[in-house]
Amino acid sequence: MRRQSWAQSEEAGEETLQRRMSDAEEAPRESTGQNGETEMKEEGEPNPNHKEVENPQEELKDDTLAWRESQEEERKKGEEEGEEEEEEEGEEDKEIAMEETQEKAGEAQEEEASGIQKETTVEPQEMKKSMTSLETQITDSQSITSGIFPTTQRGSELKPSLQSEDSEADEFLDLDQISPEEQQISSPERQPSGELEEDTNQRPQDELGRERRELEPEKKEEGQERSVSSTQSIAGISRDSLVSTTTEDVLFQKDKSAPVYPLTLTWSFGWNSSLPVYYVREEKQRVLLYVCAHTVIIYNVFRNHQYHLQNYLTFNPTNSKELVSNSKTQAIYYAWYEERDTLAHSAPLLTEKTFNKLVGKFSQSIFHLNLTQILSATMEGKLVVWDIHRPPSSASTFLGFPYIKPCKLVHLQKESITVLTTIDSYIVTGDIKGNIKFYDHTLSIVNWYSHLQLSAIRTLSFSKTPATPPTEKSNYPPDCTLKGDLFVIRNFIIGTSDATVYHLTTDGTKLEKLFVEPKDAICAISCHPYQPLIAIGSICGMIKVWNYEKKRYLFSRVFEKGLGVQSLTYNPEGALLGAGFTEGTVCILDAMSLENESPEPFRYSRTSVTHISFSHDSQYMATADISFTVAVYMVAVRNGRRVWEYLARLRSHRKSIRSLLFGVYLDSNEPRLLSLGTDRLLIEYDLLRSYKDHLEVLDIHRTDQGCYPTCMVWYPPLTRELFLLICNSGYKVKLFNATTKMCRKTLMGPAYGSPIEQAQVLPARSMAELPKRYLVFINRDKVGLQILPVDGNPHKTTAIVCHPNGVAGMALSYDGRYAFTAGGHDRSVVQWKINLSVLEAAVSLGGEDLTPFYGLLSGGRKGKFYRVTIPRELEDYFYYSQLRSQGIDTMETRKVSEHICLSELPFVMRAIGFYPSEEKIEDIFNEIKFGEYVDTGKLIDKINLPDFLRVYLNHRPPFGNTLSGIHKSFEVLGYTNSKGEKAIRREDFLKLLVTKGEHMTEEEMLDCFASLFGLNPEGWKSEPATSSVKGSEICLEEELPDEITAEIFATEILGLTISEDSGQDGQ
């Protein structure tokens, strides 16, 4: 019941917030028309008495001087306010005392006007800390909003287990709302099925919270009980209520507890303008609530602080058991009957025949002020009025459930209504032309704002503080009634379609711009090489630069229409910023002013530029576009000035380019350029031999046979050999010799639902960390960490959901402390604090030697492979291989060893169910033979059982033999038979075996079929001394069916036991 009341109360609070936002257009009066439609007559012009105030902090700073002055002011302010933290110079470290909070809050507006804001951040608290009181006591519609920030008397101390803030980064606590997938941030043992086991410390937040509430007092941990008791005694409150006495700054206090996760969300840049912004608190603190990716942001405007929540719902504020929502075509009313355990709903279909009028697509629905009706706004400027029929609750028939019925169609205005909400005694609309209108309960116009010059209204949210009563100094506008009374309304927040958020002070009609964010997808981010700056580029053509330590916006530039920013990269010196655009333009910008470094942008590409890379000496810049073309630009001296010039371009790939990378030759300081595509080609270019309009290719190498590569990075110098690290779609990580391009190692990569899409080596924080390096990666929807060197140990990786709808890009801070992920269409960039010690602790708990790898076996340590195959069958295979290599018929003394010859390794692997191709066998041989060559100069020609097990686990398919892979091959090679299945004719099948891929000779093919059909019981040519049936004696026409499907090939011909589901989500 406690859990249920918490959910219902939270949903009720959400409905309160949603009902305080809306959209509408011109002002009209109503007159009743035919068929129940009410026509609204247009009113006169509104009172234009208003003025617009720009927030100085949000002004664009287009020159370097302005930015440096801002930095200097911040430095001076930091010295006056308190001690600076050792790890981050220039940032506050002192916690703001509760007594000082209310006194200094009034000064926040002055600080904002001068461009100086206090900067503190939030550290995540341990998820096991007790949240029972907070979770169970939110009981009314205002609890989720104003209840979080009630003012208390000064002097009362409180050390809540809520999220707080310190000077390093704003981090979050999820308030028992984190979904199970979001908790995949430990280092789970990966199972062959592809499912990840979660550590008990990483279970879903709501599950942990429910267990804590249900535990008997004596079963609770002593530390938790002591923490809750001390907190409540200090605050002077009962065990049942934490919200009622929470201070206004409780979410923004500093937390010095140790981090518990390797990656912690600290800040979210951006706002999805398709979603609402809520006005949570005014008074001395202007606090907003909005959504960024899958996280709810509570943002203190004056203090520039963030607090993060996850999962949010809204219910009827007067009845937590009622909810209204709508799609584009239907309004849906829900009612929860607790005693019947039933969620009743009513969604009547509304057509043009209902009112004999065009209704239009629904935009938003709310409860009427009279609570007996529902209002639904449409994109035709109309309002549908629904009557709520609530039969007596005692009725047990179907008719006993409530339902809604359309009763009237009101034509309010010509323009589309985009927002509909209520406040006090008014119904408020916002429309596509930026007008905001207020109606009374009869839908008669009272007042409107039409001269604010706004774009389409997306959200309206009113202050929780009632409007100040008018005085002689007040400047409220008159309403449009005959009496002409002053129109006194609360201050409110306006969010528009161009991703701008405003604050309107109604007394004097003062419009203040709070922030402007990109209004389209964010795909490009790049961090400065030696300053705490991040550049964020959007498809809308905006580039914004932030100081990610201060969480302060610095300057921006908006390019002309049609130039959407697709890629961004700083050069190694940090003086230039390369920008690639969606229509093929390439610009080289000054990093501190965003002005063009070259007189004219480069327009040599015809399609979107996806990659930009600079050489180590900044003499070359290379780009790649979606037309599979690589272009190179270089610095030349003209008239004594260094200028960038176009060199050459080449369509070198057949499929999309995944990575574009500069490096340095080992025997010189000359740059080298490589590109990697999904066509499985790794191409190196000869820059020295290239000239105008001719890009010379030095080397082409194929990296994979079946899977395709996804990304490429330079492997850090952890060994004497220089490697390229390449990830592929088969969840593998491969190391290639940087000179010979030989595949030197294949290892199991992170398997978190989809393959790695981008990876970067984390910069070392100090010289002491150089021997220990880390890899940061993103896949379809997660960001993760990998401890280097890569060896296949599953405990050395961790990942957490960052953007559920997909990650578009990644960047790392110059000091290796933060990772940034761009969410693409969710229009957000998330900053993650990296806590390496937490991941190291997880690795130490995972065991040593082969212990971490046992979890990768089928069934883990409890499975048949571990209990039977390894101690019995695999050892027998090793002994049998030694007999084979020494000769079955020899009479000499046998030499028993712990090793087998490399030539026997493929046979043992096939015996335990892994069937590598000839190319993969060659890669395995090279991996083992040259494993110690750089250090010792000797080749290895044998392998023992532990090393064999590592090689097997790293090379085998991550999810075992699956039918889906065979189906894909038959879809490409086969035809659709009469049963609708993909099949290959027998003669075509045999022809493919001897002509395509790693083709066989006809003799080899016949001998293989002899073994598969049981005519060679000892296996194909495995025992030279054993008599076997000659392949020529087999009649394949009798043994093989006329047409072969994937199922027949896998089960009847190969005799494999194959699972239907691959488990490779996203591959």
Please render the helix and strand layout as text.
Layout: H1 2-18, E1 28-32, E2 37-42, E3 51-54, H2 64-81, H3 98-105, H4 108-113, E4 121-123, H5 132-136, E5 164-166, H6 205-214, H7 222-235, E6 263-269, E7 277-281, E8 287-292, E9 295-300, E10 305-309, E11 322-326, E12 331-337, E13 342-346, H8 352-355, E14 362-367, E15 373-378, E16 382-389, E17 403-411, E18 417-423, E19 426-431, E20 436-439, E21 445-449, E22 457-462, E23 492-496, E24 500-505, E25 510-516, E26 522-527, E27 533-538, E28 542-547, E29 552-558, E30 565-570, E31 576-581, E32 586-590, E33 609-614, E34 620-625, E35 630-638, E36 641-650, E37 657-664, E38 671-677, E39 681-691, E40 694-702, E41 709-714, E42 723-728, E43 732-737, E44 743-748, E45 758-761, E46 774-778, E47 782-787, E48 797-801, E49 809-812, E50 818-822, E51 829-834, H9 836-845, H10 851-854, H11 864-886, E52 899-901, H12 905-911, H13 918-929, H14 933-936, E53 942-944, H15 945-955, H16 963-973, E54 975-976, E55 982-985, H17 986-995, H18 1002-1012, H19 1036-1039, E56 1043-1045, H20 1046-1053
Parallel strand pairs: 2-17, 3-25
Antiparallel strand pairs: 1-2, 4-5, 6-51, 7-8, 8-9, 9-10, 11-12, 12-13, 14-15, 15-16, 16-17, 18-19, 19-20, 20-21, 22-23, 23-24, 24-25, 26-27, 27-28, 28-29, 30-31, 31-32, 33-34, 34-35, 35-36, 37-38, 38-39, 39-40, 41-42, 42-43, 43-44, 45-46, 46-47, 47-48, 49-50, 50-51, 52-53, 54-55, 55-56
Subcellular location: Cell projection, Cilium
Protein name: Cilia- and flagella-associated protein 251
Biased composition (Acidic residues): 80-94, 165-174
